[in-house]
Amino acid sequence: MKPLLNVGLALLAAASVSAFAVTAPDGYELVEKGRYIATLGDCTACHTLPGKPLFSGGVAIETPFGELLGANITPDPATGIGRWTFEDFQNTMARGHGRNGKQLYPAMPYAAYTKVTREDNLALWAYLRTVEPVQNEVETNQLPFPFNVRLSMKAWNWLNFTEGEFEPDADKSEQWNRGAYLVQGLGHCGSCHTPKNLIGGDKGDGTLKGGELQGWMAPNISNTAHVGLGEWTEDDIVQYLKTGANRYDIASGPMAEAVEKSTQYWRDADLKAVAVYLKSLDHEHDKPEPLSANDPIMTAGRSLYEDRCSACHTPDGEGIPTLFPKLANAPLVNARDAVSMIRVVLAGNRAGSTDAAPTGPAMPSFAWNLSDENIADVLTYVRNSWGNAASAVSADEVRKQREALQSQ
Amino acid sequence: MKDMTKKLPATDVVVVGLGWAGSIIAKELADEGLTVMGFERGAWRDTASDFNIASVTDELRYVIRQELMLRTRQNTCTMRNKPSETALPMRTWGSFHPGNGTGGAGNHWAGITFRFQPEEFRLRSHLVERYGEASIEGLALQDWGTTWEEMEPHYDAFERVAGISGKAGNIGGKVVEGGNPFEGARSREYPNPPTKQTFAPVLFADAARDMGYTPFPVPSALASQAYTNQYGVTMGPCTFCGFCTNYGCANYSKASAIVNVLPALARMPNFTAKTHCEVLEVTKDSTGKRATGIVYVDANGDRWEQPADIVVVAAFTFENVRLMLLSGIGQPFNPISNTGTTGRNYAYQTANSVQLFFDDKNFNPFIGGGAIGMGIDDFNNDNFDHSGLGFVGGGSTRVTPIGAAPINSRPVPPGTPKWGSEWKKTTVQYYASSMSIGCEASNYSTRNNYLSLDPHYTDPHGRPLLRITFDFTDNDLRMAQYVTDRTAEIAKALNPKMMFASPRKGPWSNTSYQSSHMVGGFVMGADSSTSSVNKHLQVWNVPNLFVVGASAFPQNPGYNPTGTVGALAFKAAHAIRTYYLKRPGEMISV
Lengths: 408, 590
Fold this sequence. Notes:
The structure holds two protein chains of two kinds.
Chain A: H1 2-19, H2 27-40, H3 44-47, E1 60-63, E2 66-69, H4 86-95, H5 110-113, H6 118-128, H7 152-160, H8 174-184, H9 190-193, E3 211-213, E4 216-218, H10 234-243, H11 254-261, H12 268-280, H13 296-308, H14 310-313, H15 339-347, E5 349-350, E6 362-363, H16 372-382, H17 395-406
Antiparallel strand pairs in A: 1-2, 3-4, 5-6
Helix pairs in contact in A: 2-6, 4-6, 8-12, 10-12, 13-16, 15-17, 16-17
Chain B: E1 6-7, E2 11-16, H1 20-31, E3 36-39, H2 47-50, H3 59-64, E4 77-80, E5 88-89, H4 105-108, H5 123-131, H6 148-162, E6 170-171, E7 174-175, H7 199-210, E8 216-217, E9 227-228, E10 234-235, H8 257-260, H9 262-265, E11 271-274, E12 278-284, E13 291-297, E14 303-313, H10 317-327, E15 344-348, E16 350-357, E17 374-376, E18 395-399, H11 421-430, E19 434-441, E20 450-458, E21 464-469, H12 474-493, E22 498-502, E23 518-521, E24 545-547, H13 562-578
Parallel strand pairs in B: 1-14, 2-3, 2-14, 3-11, 4-21, 14-24
Antiparallel strand pairs in B: 4-5, 6-7, 8-17, 9-10, 12-13, 13-14, 15-23, 16-19, 16-22, 17-18, 18-19, 20-21
Helix pairs in contact in B: 1-13, 6-13
């Protein structure tokens, strides 16, 4: 009897290997690895509504072309990805093809995720299979005609998409390569921080030079002086991503969400790798001459700044570390587009909060007590004081934002 | 109505009140890993949402209409001066300002954060030893059942949480130049240096120093610099905006539970805050020796029972005592037989002042903050020889210009018309050229000053209101006259054009603001026949119930209470973490 039993067990084992090839080698470790990869990729940002079951979808994603909804990626067979195979999933991550070849929109950042290794996708897939299945029908495509025609994405891909896993640069350190892999792949930093062309694809030479999205400016996060992270040390970058705040700035807007949901949970070594990589990217930048302090717009702006802003941001624009952002010599202040600044002055904003920095300070709205011209003047003053130099803000830009915000 | 009460699943800890004391205990016990539910009768308040820098400087809203205070329709007190009188309800706040909502009265406080002195914790013994029994005849002074050495680490913890700005006067027994030489030996310097001073405090300090006194910066919960506390939350430096006492702080500068504790606590998965939930009683089992939880009413008027292993009552003084009376915890105090402990030893700070008017000075009084100033303690507590003076006690003398907002800040000499052109002219003349020296003095308990349930008036839930029976005693009035005379001597040295001294006179009334420093009624001590809680704030004979706050003070020294309230909160949390959890259900015996 004994030998036979052994044969039976061996057969059983063989069967389970073929049926669960993905998880069998070491289910626990693979799933845990996948859980971390899901954190690195910030999957919840688009696939989990606050207060709703994990990954059950329905989060609205604004694009310049209309609205998309994040899909249900729980293993529910009818409304989630329960019937998918790993190869379906690999295809999605690497090529932007859903099951049965359905073409995804690049709001699902497959242009970045294509860099993710098959090995990492195996782990992520193993983790996604462990999530509780939730029946929740989500019609992801809410776009108006003609953008709702998925076929159009074929042309988009031809113009904007290069498929292929990340290839390490043998001349660089392992740490640099890890950072590049995270920034370009799972972190999909370029989705916001790389400028986009008219149809929403990355501009060729613009890697992480800053992009505009939905009324925010995602700043230049390369090592560029004046407008980028030139002044920041690697440790500053790590602290920012880990806590949401450092001596220069506090994460707010879409970045607050990225820190709260994703980067605060990244491993220190990964954050350090990201910092090393970002500090290695440099772009040419000609710092403009600031406006003269005697310019009438500057003197008007200065008075407004002293009355309305200096109590928190301090009279010399230095701010208070981790509480009130530094405005002096600040990359976001010097950004080519002042849209984020206009937005927070008009609408106010609450910074992100993390376990490490729980304060979550807020900037109040000044829409009710500053005119378009006031806001233009004070922002022009800030953008041209204390080492800053950037184009003046016009009252017209403020008016347009005010109208856009009011219509929301 | 009881039948309508729905029972909820049990939790580890229930904390009643989310002001300073409740928030600190909830945080410390949540850090211990316990599941904690905090109950607050008012709203959730949060700096970012509630104290917007563009709108917070609204005197009408916060001072005149008292937005941060408890509404008297929700709950108030009845008051009388003597046991022979019939008490009447306070329908508007006058004498004091009970808070409401998370942060409690610790939102609208001034931020003055003294430690009590070592002698205070054994005040009765100390005075008897120094002056004999006769010196305290007629007073109900008591020792606290604890010592300075036991209190010091908890004062230190509170100062770190609140980021107190000040200058030590005594580190490890060594007197430090520039600080308060009368303070007890502290383990280390304040977490932040003193704030800068405005003109009036500097003038006062110079004159006091010339007269041989020892001025020091008033210890302040208004941060002098950016500060991040042990919970990771950050304060910004005070801007001296002048909208401080009675206001919330928009700059994250004035320490409060909502700035310094709740942002860290609220994100903990094992903490839940229940706001707009008023706790009606602490429930007990049939033996009466175990608290089983609380009953509360939510914003819909629904009643719920929340069972818990540990109940911490950390509301304001009044509500702590009232909840104990309503829940039948301890025997109500009876002034005739001098028995019972619940309601015993109620005391209320004695406030005095001297106002000065100048022709040749400009104080820019709009610059200021609740706790920015200079003080002396030469005439506080027992820092001076009381032999032959006919009283015990004293006061903390100081100049802390809180700001001078346009509606209420109209300093005019007595006798000026209350309205019209003469009043306007005099306002203009003295708005910037007057200052005031305050003397926040002790109030020593007596048998006839106590708290009880009112026999006539009830709250919207039909429960009796708390009745205050209180008046200033001869001891306090003599003390008030003495310390105000000393204060006036310093005022005179400043050579004002006119000065007016206002020593506290009886009787106590609700017509003008005095302070919100009401203490006692559920006091701590070593003897269960004269105290309600032991030195760990644990209720005698109900070991899983802790009652924390200024209600535990057996009398009121010449200091603001909040520093000690914070220290007691840390003390109780420490006792629960270190001792109680090892032997739950037993009185702590260490």
